């Protein structure tokens, strides 16, 4: 029998859970600026999280995990994002695949993967292909008729794969069947290239993955046609919003710390020190309000996922409940992206030219937030929400890229 999905618990339960990981988050935060300045890849932080069992936090206890609820997971992601916003994004595909397996019906594949993750396995992503392919077209193929299949193709934006034990690769078998094939990251025929050149989220390992006949077990392919109704599109979007909310928290932390340590004042300032200047205090307060709003909005949308889990445990979930969760995630994205970007920009109003010193790396907050905010562009989220409200149009449950033929 499929284990029931975890449900939200009280604040004391969350604090007990978070207390296990906060020392690791603090250790990660200590090295964030140095990694940013010298582009030090996050292999050690990922290893620390793995050792602490963070990757298995949603896995049922009897299968090696912590049995956390989806709300608890997202609250932890916000805290991790405050420490270093690269880390939640590195783990986005990992927790996405885990979430899908949690919702699977009983079966060998479900139990095998939950146990693997419970034992510490980390999963990366290789989904996107660039070039002139048609919308929704997948060039990466699964071929062969033996006990193993061969996986061939080239992927870009392979977030997390540099740090992973397994990689979830979007592929097709024949012309129609599409799904995610799980391939060992160190398997022959798998090449991971660190060539991500974005100006933000620089350490996420979002480079190229080349697959040349890499072996895949047929039982480790999860077909889209086998999926039931789910909230995974909203889940993946909310992952970005949790990371953005963590950046908002980090902006508040760094703004207050910067002001406390600053002694120089402007002749036309309003206080004997920046910390006593009411205008500077106002800026910090405004930043704090923006960050609070971002996190509260994210968690309000996450609550829709929690409600689905509760309904699923009791029986079937009506389609309109899935629709409401998807719309809520889009509404949250519209709000959170703008709010965190404003907070990151306001940080520079707390001081003078010293705020832009490279050694402080305060610019990373805006760069990272800007990079995250362009995933699934806000303008299309706004249109989808507007169409739903005006015309009762169904939410868009597929966000794909390509050339419109």
Automatic annotation (TrEMBL):
<comment type="similarity">
    <text>Belongs to the HpaH/HsaA monooxygenase family.</text>
</comment>
<protein>
    <submittedName>
        <fullName>Alkylation response protein AidB-like acyl-CoA dehydrogenase</fullName>
    </submittedName>
</protein>
<dbReference type="InterPro" id="IPR006091">
    <property type="entry name" value="Acyl-CoA_Oxase/DH_mid-dom"/>
</dbReference>
<dbReference type="GO" id="GO:0033539">
    <property type="term" value="P:fatty acid beta-oxidation using acyl-CoA dehydrogenase"/>
</dbReference>
<dbReference type="InterPro" id="IPR009100">
    <property type="entry name" value="AcylCoA_DH/oxidase_NM_dom_sf"/>
</dbReference>
<dbReference type="InterPro" id="IPR046373">
    <property type="entry name" value="Acyl-CoA_Oxase/DH_mid-dom_sf"/>
</dbReference>
<dbReference type="GO" id="GO:0050660">
    <property type="term" value="F:flavin adenine dinucleotide binding"/>
</dbReference>
<feature type="domain" description="Acyl-CoA oxidase/dehydrogenase middle">
    <location>
        <begin position="126"/>
        <end position="212"/>
    </location>
</feature>
<dbReference type="GO" id="GO:0003995">
    <property type="term" value="F:acyl-CoA dehydrogenase activity"/>
</dbReference>
<dbReference type="InterPro" id="IPR036250">
    <property type="entry name" value="AcylCo_DH-like_C"/>
</dbReference>
<dbReference type="Pfam" id="PF02770">
    <property type="entry name" value="Acyl-CoA_dh_M"/>
</dbReference>
<dbReference type="InterPro" id="IPR050741">
    <property type="entry name" value="Acyl-CoA_dehydrogenase"/>
</dbReference>
<dbReference type="GO" id="GO:0016712">
    <property type="term" value="F:oxidoreductase activity, acting on paired donors, with incorporation or reduction of molecular oxygen, reduced flavin or flavoprotein as one donor, and incorporation of one atom of oxygen"/>
</dbReference>
<keyword id="KW-0285">Flavoprotein</keyword>
<dbReference type="Pfam" id="PF08028">
    <property type="entry name" value="Acyl-CoA_dh_2"/>
</dbReference>
<dbReference type="Pfam" id="PF02771">
    <property type="entry name" value="Acyl-CoA_dh_N"/>
</dbReference>
<dbReference type="GO" id="GO:0005737">
    <property type="term" value="C:cytoplasm"/>
</dbReference>
<feature type="domain" description="Acyl-CoA dehydrogenase C-terminal">
    <location>
        <begin position="243"/>
        <end position="376"/>
    </location>
</feature>
<keyword id="KW-0560">Oxidoreductase</keyword>
<dbReference type="InterPro" id="IPR013107">
    <property type="entry name" value="Acyl-CoA_DH_C"/>
</dbReference>
<feature type="domain" description="Acyl-CoA dehydrogenase/oxidase N-terminal">
    <location>
        <begin position="40"/>
        <end position="120"/>
    </location>
</feature>
<dbReference type="InterPro" id="IPR013786">
    <property type="entry name" value="AcylCoA_DH/ox_N"/>
</dbReference>
<dbReference type="InterPro" id="IPR037069">
    <property type="entry name" value="AcylCoA_DH/ox_N_sf"/>
</dbReference>
């Amino acid at each position: 029998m499929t284990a029931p999905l975890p449900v939200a618990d009280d604040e004391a339960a969350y604090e007990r859970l978070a207390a296990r990981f906060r020392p690791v988050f603090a250790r990660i935060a200590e090295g964030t600026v140095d990694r940013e300045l010298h582009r030090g890849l996050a292999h050690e932080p990922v290893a620390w999280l793995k050792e602490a069992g963070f990757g298995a936090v949603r896995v049922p206890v009897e299968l090696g995990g912590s049995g956390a609820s989806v709300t608890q997971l997202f609250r932890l992601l916000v805290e991790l994002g405050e420490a270093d916003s690269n880390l939640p994004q590195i783990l986005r595909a990992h927790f996405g695949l885990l979430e899908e397996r949690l919702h699977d019906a009983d079966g060998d594949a479900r139990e095998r993967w939950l146990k693997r993750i419970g034992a510490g396995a980390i999963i990366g992503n290789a989904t996107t292909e660039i070039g002139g392919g048609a919308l929704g077209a997948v060039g990466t193929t699964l071929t062969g008729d033996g006990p193993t299949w061969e996986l061939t193709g080239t992927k870009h934006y392979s977030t997390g794969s540099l740090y992973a034990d397994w990689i979830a690769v979007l592929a097709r078998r024949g012309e129609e069947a599409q799904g995610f094939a799980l391939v060992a990251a160190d398997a022959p025929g798998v090449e991971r290239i660190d060539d991500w050149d974005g100006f933000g989220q620089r350490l996420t390992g979002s480079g190229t993955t080349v697959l040349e006949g890499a072996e895949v077990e047929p039982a480790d392919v999860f077909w889209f046609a086998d999926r039931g109704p789910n909230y995974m599109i909203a889940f993946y979007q909310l992952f970005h919003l949790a990371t953005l909310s963590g950046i908002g928290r980090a902006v508040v932390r760094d703004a207050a710390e910067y002001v406390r340590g600053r002694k120089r004042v402007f002749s036309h300032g309003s206080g004997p020190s920046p910390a006593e200047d009411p205008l500077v205090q106002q800026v910090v307060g405004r930043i704090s309000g923006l960050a609070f709003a971002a996190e509260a909005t994210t968690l309000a949308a996450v609550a829709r996922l929690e409600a689905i889990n509760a309904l699923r445990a009791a029986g079937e979930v009506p389609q309109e409940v899935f629709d409401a969760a998807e719309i809520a995630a889009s509404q949250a994205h519209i709000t959170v992206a703008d709010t965190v970007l404003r907070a990151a920009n306001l940080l520079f109003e707390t001081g003078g030219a010293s705020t832009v010193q490279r050694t402080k790396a305060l610019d990373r907050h805006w760069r990272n937030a800007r990079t995250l905010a362009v995933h699934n562009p806000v303008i299309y989220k706004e249109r989808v929400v507007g169409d739903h409200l005006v015309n009762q149009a169904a939410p868009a449950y597929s966000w794909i890229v390509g050339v419109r033929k």
